[in-house]
Description:
The first copy, chain A, is of the alpha/beta class. The first copy, chain A, contains 8 helices and 13 strands. Chain A is globular.
Amino acid sequence: MMKEKLTVVKVGGGIVEEESSLRQLLAAFSAIDGYKVLVHGGGRSATKIAERLGIESRMVNGRRITDADMLNVVTMVYGGLVNKSIVAGLQACGVNALGLTGTDMDVIRSHKRPAKDVDYGFVGDVDTVNGKLLEELIRKDIVPVMAPLTHDGKGHILNTNADTIAGETAKALAPYFNVTLIFCFEKKGVLRDADDENSVIGHIDEADFKRYVEDGTIQGGMIPKLENSFDAIRAGVDKVVITLATAIDGRSGTIIEK
Amino acid sequence: MMKEKLTVVKVGGGIVEEESSLRQLLAAFSAIDGYKVLVHGGGRSATKIAERLGIESRMVNGRRITDADMLNVVTMVYGGLVNKSIVAGLQACGVNALGLTGTDMDVIRSHKRPAKDVDYGFVGDVDTVNGKLLEELIRKDIVPVMAPLTHDGKGHILNTNADTIAGETAKALAPYFNVTLIFCFEKKGVLRDADDENSVIGHIDEADFKRYVEDGTIQGGMIPKLENSFDAIRAGVDKVVITLATAIDGRSGTIIEK
């Protein structure tokens, strides 16, 4: 049986936190044909609100340390402010959005990351995504808008990386749909030359990736993003795209295919 | 056809904002047989967070003035912190909770209250509750947990009184279920003597109510609460109960019946 198309779009904090870029994103996302899911971050807003509340943001390797106070902040900001602003904006575009955290309908179950070299605090590593439940909602033309929060089933909300949420959600939906996973960020794609915005690598496979990492073309935060991408492809996702938030048509940016 | 039982419980801010009273409420709510919906407030938390953010809470006649900054606060606190804490807590009790604001799946549409004597700001008066959609979720054993936020369908979130959300939701579900609406507050019920906790009026009808208002037995915030209650009964709700959050078995407190 031919599977229908589904697009999972992950947008970072910066894009959803400014009125004008949010409006652009909502228009671009609304224009995507077929079934879709939006996953958002919100780190910048969380940092700002935390600062105003006198709560210090501590980061290790670009990851947030989530103590009890910070967990309250991300629960408010990701689950409330950012999520509901996007949902209301999509409703105005005629998209029947439903804001979800992992705890809603037990959609994403996780466990608290054990403290090893770094104690990240209330951070959850994903165990299961309820793909069947999401599929049922999606087939009713409901568009899940997912905040980067999960839960452990014991009453604890946990902070979870939005790229991970997007990747795991795309994988959980791969049995039901022909899934394209789009990671939006502030560049046009993976660049061959960091100083040249137009040096986008159009397609990349695992052999290319290995080579680019070895020769230093690809470095930093792009490495885990691409590792996530190949992992998603191996788990049944059809296509991963790394692109600008304004170019989420599935054809622009850097493309990774099965 | 015999309709199945559904209980809509409305809890105020104070109850959900303290760990111990929240735990008691979750246990009592989990113990309710049959289909159910929880509607919560969160005003005290919103006031506290607003204060920490340097945003002034302004109230007129016990109602909050919601300017743009305060709208962000209530969106965070009601839609994020309070809602998701309850949902995670219910999941731990084996209740398959789904946190909703009115904008999620367009569940509750409202319009901004026109500024007359008082400009309440971003406050929404309810136009429609999608009872059919809620019914479908509820029949799948999903338990909606509703924050007091609605939307106008044009991208604006609006702050809406939680008692109103509870009343309108109960009315919208009355065609599908035999609905009991429970308003929790800090007293055992409507009291005959404000100084005597045990002077609960067991049953009240509209004629009693009128008499009690005239002779001053019932006054203040209890008047709109009871007006809401009679309004719900007239609109098809079977039973309204006004009681303590720890006594939501549908038999304690002040009862209003068809």
